[in-house]
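Allow me, if you will, to draw on your knowledge of protein folds for a short while. The matter concerns a single protein, recorded as an amino acid sequence and a row of backbone structure tokens. Could you please explain, in whatever detail you think fit, how the structure tokens follow from the sequence? I remain grateful for any guidance, and I place the record below:

…
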Amino acid sequence: MSLISIWFDFVDLIFPRCCAACDKGLIGNENVICTACRIALPRASQDSIFSETIGQKFLDRHEVSETHAFLLFTKKGKVQKLLHALKYKGQPEVGVELGYMFGQEMLENNMLPDADLIISVPLHKRKLKSRGYNQSDKLAEGFSKASTIPWSGDVLLRAKYTETQTGKTRNERWENVRGVFVVKGDVKGKKVIIMDDVLTTGATIEACIEVLLDAGCTEFIVLTIASTQH
């Protein structure tokens, strides 16, 4: 055993690292999420009826060529716990790791999208200041690291502060986010990935697509770390 391994084992003993999904101690080279949880996290299979449901959320958008969700979101499940740690417990490393896992698995399965840029769904500056980071930026950062597709958290901005989308109907969600995004970068002629944390009705992403289309984007791939089952 090397001196480095001994040192890390000592540090883990004094300051134990815990899995963000199950709270059990991480060992060896495990990072953020333990090996058992990495394997057990429920994937959103691309050949399932559920996967077809995800695509149907954007059927009226012919500019959306692909839609993919990495994991299935269920209440009180491990995916919810991971996203809660990312969004509300100040653990940005969870987002980077989930994004990396997503990109790595798409790469390994020859499903990596052909895109010019990854654009993360932005937070309003008030919420960004409160949280300290944008969770979608962290997901995009990790996915970019695995895929080598560049990402940006500055191209798309949220100009207006809005109420939470939780508990709203699809129409209410659409009215809540319509017109709140603005494009600050040059996206003319680009094929882009829009990255977000959870896909529910798709209203927020639709609002992003609308302004990006006006700015000259030609094609969209929608990627979310998790999706609800309705």
In short: The two ends are 50 Å apart (CA to CA). The first strand starts at residue 64 and ends at 72. DSSP finds nine helices and seven strands in the chain. The CA atoms of residues 162 and 176 lie 7 Å apart.
